[in-house]
Structures are given as C-alpha cells and as structure tokens.
Specification:
10 helices, about 260 residues, Rossmann fold, alpha/beta
C-alpha cells in the first residue's frame, strides 16, 4: 500500500544550516498494516510523513501509494489517497463551520464539486451514525460550530473525517500529543477501532513508547533519517520498554537510560 524507495531529503543544502533529514530511506507497508513510528527529535519522523503527504518535494527516491507513483504530485493531488490527523486539534477542521458541514466537506473529498450546496437527509443520517460511534454525544450537536468543541472532541471528529472516505493511507502525526492523558487514551482507542473497522493502512508517529508498543501490528524506530528498528508480529506483542531501549542501544551504539532521554 505504501512504498518508499531510497527517499532522501536535505534542508538548506550547501549552507551552515544544512540538515540531512532523510537518508536513503526504505519503507514498505502492506495493506492493513498499522505502523507506529518512534524516534528522537530530528530523527526524521515528521519529515517522512510530510514527504509522503507531499508537503515538500524529496531530493531523491520514489513514493508509491497503492501502485500509484505520487513522487511528483503536489499535496492537494495526493489528498485523494491520504487522510491525515495533526498534532494540533485546531488543524484539520473548519472552526467556523458546523460539525455536519465539516463532515460534508470530508465526504465530498475527491469528488467533482458543483454550485449547489447542502447536506441531504440521507447524508445527515449517515453522519449521525458515524458520530454515534465516537461515544461523545456529538450526534446530537451536529449544528454546533466546531470551534466550540474541546480539543479531544475536535481531534475525534478530525479522525472520523480523515477516515470517512476510506483513504489508502491514514497518517496520524502525534495526534494525541496535545491532549491530556485520559483524552489521549480515548482518542487512541478510537484510532484503533476506526483503523480496524475500515481496514485502513496507517502510520502513527508518537513520542510515547508505551503507546508505540501497545498500538498497531508493527513498530519502527528512526534515527538520523533512517529506520534502525523494525519489529512486528509476535516479537512486537512481547515487547517491553526495557527491550526497546536495549534494542535501540544495540543498533545505534548509544546507551540510553530512559525513554525520556531517547525521545526528547
């Protein structure tokens, strides 16, 4: 479903601020993979997600989504393949529009737009059903403006919108980092359910080692623009934070004493 082949990206090349963010990166996701991504600041996690989304062009290599080479496509052209939830709950929705209007925009993604506008009765019932699955009572508040929702409610709505058209690839960019622990746990639970129920392929960046271990069927760790660990299947199910730190030390040659040191 996703193939990154020898992808490289350098910021500010030829200057004193030159930074090699991705270095000959290879990553291959099968359909239905839910991959968690961890690594320290500057490891290349967000750069990789932004490269996949088309936020900026890569210097070399190719990006293929479901057999389509999207390497040269701008961000808006890749929207037909990708759903994304950002770290900031304020992104991904139109705050001055109603909940049902935001869902209508997401529902029409990739379709030809006409001059007519309106949410049909059938659509409204669909949105009500989808909102009910969140367990937040938003199905009874569909005409409320999104800007009035809490951060957790808004992030849950953004997650629902991103998955509404069943994208080829769902990108979760530290989407619980700005939430309190209880709300973050709820949003992660919803993420698991939506990915599983819709059979989505997902990439989730997180700084929380416990979340990286608990969620998804595969875990990768990045360092200096490369993947240095790729753990899946039974090995991932048995993984502990101590195991992960030890594996990082073995692969990177750096002895770390805590995930805070590793991931800060």
């Amino acid at each position: 479903m996703l193939d990154l082949n020898h992808v490289s990206k350098t910021f500010n090349p030829g200057t004193v601020n030159e930074k090699k963010a991705l270095s000959d990166l290879d990553l291959h996701l099968r359909e239905g993979d839910f991959v968690t991504v961890i690594g320290g600041n500057g490891a290349g996690k967000s750069t990789m997600l932004n490269a996949v989304a088309g936020v900026w062009p890569v210097d070399g290599g190719s990006i293929v989504i479901d057999g389509h080479d999207v390497t040269g496509l701008p961000e808006y052209r890749r929207a037909a393949f990708i759903g994304r939830v950002f770290q900031d709950p304020m992104m991904g929705t139109a705050p001055s529009m109603q909940i049902e209007e935001n869902l209508a925009l997401a529902y029409r993604r990739g379709r030809r737009r006409g001059l007519s506008w309106g949410v049909t009765r059938a659509e409204r019932e669909l949105y009500r059903q989808k909102l009910h699955t969140l367990g937040l009572g938003l199905e009874d508040r569909m005409t409320v403006k999104v800007g009035l929702l809490s951060g957790g409610q808004r992030q849950a709505l953004t997650l629902l919108m991103a998955a509404l058209q069943k994208p080829k690839l769902l990108l979760l960019d530290e989407h619980t980092a700005a939430l309190d622990p209880a709300t973050a746990a709820k949003v992660l639970e919803l993420s698991d359910r939506i990915v599983a129920d819709s059979g989505l392929t997902a990439l989730m960046i997180t700084h929380n080692m416990k979340d990286a271990i608990t969620h998804g069927n595969r875990l990768i760790m990045m360092n200096e623009g490369r993947i240095i660990l790729d753990i899946r299947g039974e090995e991932k199910k048995k993984l502990t934070k101590a195991d992960l730190l030890q594996k990082f030390a073995e692969v990177s040659g750096v002895q770390e004493e805590s995930d805070q040191v590793l991931l800060s």
